[in-house]
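dumping this here so i dont lose it
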């Protein structure tokens, strides 16, 4: 896998780059498993009342949602990787696996998994790439992804391209996981995780090159608050370019820099052993 540059035939081509899709089994053939596809309805950032709750969303190319198996509950049955495919709805690649009983499912593809490999799930599996096992059975020090926070609920964390958590220790039914952000969190050893890191680690190095590619992804231009009118944003108004006249904030007045956004009474706070390192705005570094 890698990044491919185009010939600089235009300004957008000169600055833009794309994935070479080298890890995909058939990179030039878009033929997903039809039985695992459902239409993805566009919402444009609006809730069921029609109110915009997420700004600057809308448009974008039509997509079909791939039904990915995040629970991996089919224990004791070996599956063969049929193909590694591109998923337009996520940054990682997905793998189409076929079990010995004939059933096909999509799973998140770990980095290094290829067509023809064997994967399985359960407590008695061999701890190798692509195996889904409880944290109590995974050797310490291994990289894992698609980790459950509640047993049986399905993988919730470390699902984007290139992500992985490190299994540090186990004690009294709890496992310590070091997250990609540096946070150390306690998770029940009954929770399942998949061995390996998520595929497509070069996703973060891709340059869009032009604004049109973001529109294809359903992202509209993000307007600065200072460029808007006073009725539209707290930092709007004024003659010419202004500094905003107050601390940076959101459209609803929530401070954007330096303030903590995590709820103090959030139930998951007791599971955090060490917080992630503070960003530049929290430490006062400009």
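and the seq i came up w/
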């Amino acid at each position: 896998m890698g990044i491919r540059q185009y010939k600089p035939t235009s300004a957008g081509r000169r600055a833009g780059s794309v994935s070479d899709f080298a890890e995909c089994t058939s990179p030039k053939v878009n033929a997903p498993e039809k039985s695992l596809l459902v239409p993805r309805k566009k919402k444009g950032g609006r809730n069921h009342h029609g109110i915009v709750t997420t700004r600057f969303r809308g448009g974008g190319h039509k997509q079909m949602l791939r039904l990915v198996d995040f629970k991996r509950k089919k224990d004791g049955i070996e599956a063969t990787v049929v193909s590694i495919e591109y998923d337009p709805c996520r940054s990682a690649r997905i793998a189409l696996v076929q079990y010995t009983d004939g059933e096909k499912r999509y799973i998140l593809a770990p980095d290094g998994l290829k067509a023809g490999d064997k994967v399985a799930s359960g407590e008695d599996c061999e701890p190798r790439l692509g195996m889904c096992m409880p944290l109590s059975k995974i050797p310490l020090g291994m990289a894992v992804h698609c980790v459950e926070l509640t047993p049986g609920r399905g993988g919730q964390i470390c699902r984007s391209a290139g992500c992985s958590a490190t299994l540090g220790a186990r004690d009294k039914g709890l496992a310590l996981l070091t997250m990609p952000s540096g946070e150390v969190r306690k998770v029940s050893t009954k929770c399942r995780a998949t061995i390996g890191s998520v595929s497509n680690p070069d996703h973060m190095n891709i340059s869009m090159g032009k604004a049109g590619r973001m529109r294809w992804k359903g992202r509209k231009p993000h307007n600065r608050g200072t460029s808007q009118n006073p009725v539209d944003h707290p930092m709007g108004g004024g003659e010419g370019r202004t500094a905003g006249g107050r601390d940076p904030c959101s459209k609803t007045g929530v401070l954007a820099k330096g303030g903590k956004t995590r709820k103090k009474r959030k139930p998951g706070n007791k599971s955090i052993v060490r917080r992630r390192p503070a960003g530049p705005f929290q430490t006062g570094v400009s």
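The two ends are 35 Å apart (CA to CA).
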